[in-house]
Amino acid sequence: HEVLLLGGDESASHEYLFGDPRYIVTDAQGRIYVADQEFMNIRVYDDSGRYIRTLGERGRGPMEFQSFDGLAINQEQELIALDRTNRRITRFSTEGQLLSTHPRQRWARADIRPFRDGYLFLSHQTSEPGDIDFLFRVYGSGFEQPTVAFGSTDQIADPYNIIETTELDAEPSSFIFTEGGLLYAPSLYEGKLYLYTEAGGQWTLTSTIDGLVEKRAYTEVDKPAIYENADLVIFYARTMKGARVHNTSLGLFRLQDDQIVHFTNVEFGRQRYFGTEVFDRDGQLVGYGAIEKIPLTAQGIAKLFLDIVWKDELDRFYVIDRMDQPVIRVVELEIRPTDMTLD
What we know:
343 residues; 4-stranded antiparallel beta sheet; 2 helices; 29 strands; 49% strand
């Protein structure tokens, strides 16, 4: 159920209206930080939704941004923002004091998490068919060259299939740390989560966890029908590819009781379901809940305008709703017994 709504009153002052919110994080005091790509700033709210301050603005100078392509908060309660356009990473306090900037050469967005004394990035860069890259990189606190890289993209996707490689997304909630290692969910969801474990400083893909799906993640469509029948269109090297997407991962989270929650958009028959898979700490699927049914169009397309981008320490989820004027919904998830069937 919903516990807080930000941006729902169009008559409110501009501090409470969003243009294109991309990332959300919360700090130890429950303050909410929203990075908005349209206004190119980060707005701060308290845990009740009251506006506090704005951090940064558009530009190329100190504490200025041209794009938001990753946002994190570290153990010292410092914010980390990745800006692809300015080709840099900015580290700053929760009050907006610039602490350091670091050049960033890789042209890719990233899901950034604090990790030991540094950071772990989910960020791949494959531009041509056949390209293979690593999904994960470990950086020190200075963001120099990565100390470890792992998760070869060809273990998850066909390197010659531009649809699959493009959708190895670096969304804000694509992976979690578990007791056993690191669990990753690709955007195109084939019903498998990928578990990486570490031994002797080396990370390897050791197993997969099965979820609840009926179909393959997508069906490729022919070029003449792309715009009518595809909900995913990719342009590269003067070529256009289209796909009708059946199953997507919307966010992977670990609860305080170590249960794993995986939000999905999955097609069963002629119906798309926005729902939640629940796994126990051992990776066994123990439940599924359908939150909303999404009817398919005659072309087999269904749109869901929700991005689940963050979970706080109280197990509250932060959802960007783009159906109309963008709003941010803070919700709590009620997990009840289920037989894992869909009606």
